[in-house]
Amino acid sequence: METGTIPIAECSGGFDLYRTLESGQSYLWRREDGEMYNDDAEPGPGHDRWYSTVVDGDVIRVRRRGGDQPGAADNSSAGVLEWEASDDREPTIRRLLRLDDDLESIVESAPADPFLEEAYEAYRGLRLVEDPPFGTLISFICSAQMRVSRIHGMVSTLARTYGDEIEFDGETYHAFPRPEQLASSTEAELRDLGLGYRAPYVVRTAEMVANGDGHPADARDLEYEDARDHLTQFVGVGDKVADCVLLFSLGFDEAVPLDTWIKTAIADYYPDCDCGNYAETSRAIRERFGGKYAGYAQTYVFHYLRTGE
DNA sequence: GACCAGGTAGCAA
DNA sequence: TTGCTACATGGT
What we know:
Elements: E1 2-7, H1 17-21, E2 30-31, E3 51-55, E4 58-65, E5 80-85, H2 90-96, H3 103-108, H4 114-122, H5 133-142, H6 148-162, E6 165-168, E7 171-174, H7 179-183, H8 187-192, H9 199-210, H10 224-231, H11 239-249, H12 260-269, H13 278-288, H14 294-306
Helix pairs in contact: 4-14, 5-6, 5-11, 10-11
The structure holds a DNA duplex.
């Protein structure tokens, strides 16, 4: 087993592992106590529990060690990110958790907007993630009209039921299923697992990817709005889910998914951005949130409103 | 029992 | 194009 540490002081703008992984953007990590996204088992931002995920068949575990406030302005006392894997996976971890993003500059370059500044200030150290595209696609197909804790539960169930079992450090982990593994499931099975009306969407999209009709990663090569349109070819994927996939797995930092919370924010704080349809409203709020990193702003606002502060 | 949650597909006009 | 409406499920 390989292990290592990454000083959080090296991460411009800090790094808050808890808020990064439990802010509703990733459903592909699991917390060791199994209580991730459980608001009743809220461990607080400074906890040091392990989180694990499986990438390319390898288990990766990370946790925060030492330090005071994870997003403290005084970064010198920020502690370290400790990791374990079967090989040297530090480069993968840096990519997945976007540790090399210059978060300080991103926050500083955000528009001078009191509401936005409040959200950024409240959750310093929250970074976007870069999750694997297929798992992200299925996760957000499942997310329709669902609370984040239940989305995480559904994704975990899919992994347990259809994903590869992987032994690491004496414990069994489950990879997120490959397209062909999910494509071999049936709508009835997935309904039994509690996916509800999303069940046929998941099966049909998995079949499309398994058959080679398309892959979410193909959207990488396109311009932002074309990429969004491209992703809506998958069943169960509309503009909003497409934006989530672009933002949380394909590096389109300008994407602003218009979900119920952001729509609330638009109604309350940016009513002039409501253009009556998704594409135009998206364009308006994207501009209001500073363009290039509008998705970062979106993620902070989403978390700020959803967890209510 | 309503109401709500990181919405979308299918259909009518 | 735009504007309904049905769709599962569990928590408050």
